[in-house]
Amino acid sequence: MTVAEKPNVVYILTDQWRAKATGYNGDPNAVTPNIDRLAAESLDFTNAIGTSPVCTPARAALLTGRFPTTTGMFMNDIPLSPDEQSIGKAFKAGGYDTAYIGKWHVDGYGRASYIPPERRQGFDYWKVLECTHDYQNSEYYDGNDPTLKVWPGYDAFSQTDDACEYIRQDRENSFFLTLSLGPPHFPHNNAPEDFQNRFKPEDVKFSPNAVFNDPEAEAFARKEAAGYYAHIAALDGCIQQVVDVLKDTGLEENTILIFASDHGEMMGSHGHTPFKKQIFWDESCRVPYLLRYPPLTANQKGRKVSTPLGTVDIMPTLLSLCGLDIPKPVEGSDLSACIRQGIELEDHLTLYMSVSPFSGKNHTDPAYRALRTQRHTFVKTADDDIYLFDDVDDPYQLTNLSGSPETAQIKSGLEQALANELDRIDDPFREKEYYLEKWGYEVNKTGEVPYSR
């Protein structure tokens, strides 16, 4: 297969979009008709898990296929080594054109600083800012020009326009394009006004695991949720725009199209306030993950794949689907058989973690290591608390089964499986100070590495 015959890859990466917050997953608040249609044409990985559910660690795991304890990328605003054998470099080495548009957040040298080519992990076409959530005044750098520019209007719309122009370009090679959109990450008051006007706080319907005893806390959650769903509705149109341009250019058949997020958002579930992630609950760690590639998915449209897909599994899976070499340091698993053969990998599970919790909302939370299987979530915290959930019978994780005699054998088996996974990646699961000292990170009183603009 020549490079021109290999499939293109368009990877739409959103920020803080939890898996439940889509129409096709039954959320009554989510207005996502375009994404719902895409879901009906795609494989839906129902157990897609953020390997470390917060921005920088999740994005580093996506780029490297390696765990945070291996790369040191377990906190926000720290630099990913330019020596990593990243997904961008792997596609580039395979003859692909590479492009990245939008939020980056793995450079670690200031959220508005220029990122030189040697720190772009193999991506050539480059319209990027390290990090911003000022969606109506969003800055970026264009290629090697060190002058800040501003996306016009709501940045997700302009970034999607730019991605579509990139797709339309004539080229000899196949391409790997990442469109990295900032919403629906907070703030939740800066979606386009017409979308904000569609969602009223009093109309929000919370899931059964969001119970409020404080009227002020409920009012705050309702206000934030309305803005969250406004962002989601706005992005729904962006996804359709990409779908349309692939069809219009005749590239639909030979393009792997992915819609995903880096991590989720608690939004009041289990007593956790809006904006919170990092923790092990489903709303924080599970993300939407749709994959459409007509030559392989046309005969299994709408299939729900229950095999767990960790962030670290994405790089080897995509490289395999495109016939490219998987770098030896990659720790994730190639799950392409789920797509090629339409099977489930019954023994596969995914490890996820919080190594050194940080931020005003998270720094007092215990670190943890966790497993997701096709049916269960198993969690062990640094405080030696154990959680076991049956995610099929109890999708809102209301009942901790760790003390139940009926699940003792399941618990024992998962505890051993967790120990095996940690041994495989050489993670001793020690106190957070061990990892901070090992990687030389100095943190403030809320456990964060201080960052500059």
Number of domains: 2
Roughly what percent helix? 25-40%
- Overall average pLDDT: 97
Give the biggest beta sheet. Answer: 10 strands, mixed
Any idea of the CATH class of the largest domain? Answer: Alpha Beta
At the fourth level of CATH, the homologous superfamily of the largest domain is: Alkaline Phosphatase, subunit A
Quote the distance from N terminus to C terminus. 45 Å
Question: How many helices in DSSP terms?
Answer: 13
The helix/strand order is EHEEHHHEEEEHEHHEHEHEEHHEEEEHH
Give the DSSP E fraction (strand runs of 2 or more residues): 15-25%
Task: Just name the CATH architecture of the largest domain.
Answer: 3-Layer(aba) Sandwich
Fill in the CATH topology of the largest domain: Alkaline Phosphatase, subunit A
Structural class: alpha/beta
> How many β-strand runs?
16
Care to describe what's here?
- The protein has 453 residues and is α/β, with parallel strands linked by helices.
- The chain folds into 2 domains: 3-340, Alkaline Phosphatase, subunit A (3-Layer(aba) Sandwich), CATH 3.40.720.10; 352-439, Arylsulfatase, C-terminal domain, CATH 3.30.1120.
- It has helices at residues 33-41, 55-64, 68-71, 87-93, 155-168, 193-196, 215-248, 282-285, 294-297, 311-321, 336-340, 408-424, 432-439, and strands at residues 8-15, 43-45, 48-49, 97-103, 125-129, 139-142, 149-150, 175-184, 255-261, 289-292, 304-305, 309-310, 350-354, 368-372, 376-381, 386-390.
- The strands form 3 sheets. A 10-stranded mixed β-sheet has the order 7-6-5-4-8-1-9-10-2-11, with helices on both faces.
- Helix 2 (55-64) packs parallel to helix 10.
- The longest helix is centred in the middle third of the chain and has 34 residues, at 215-248.
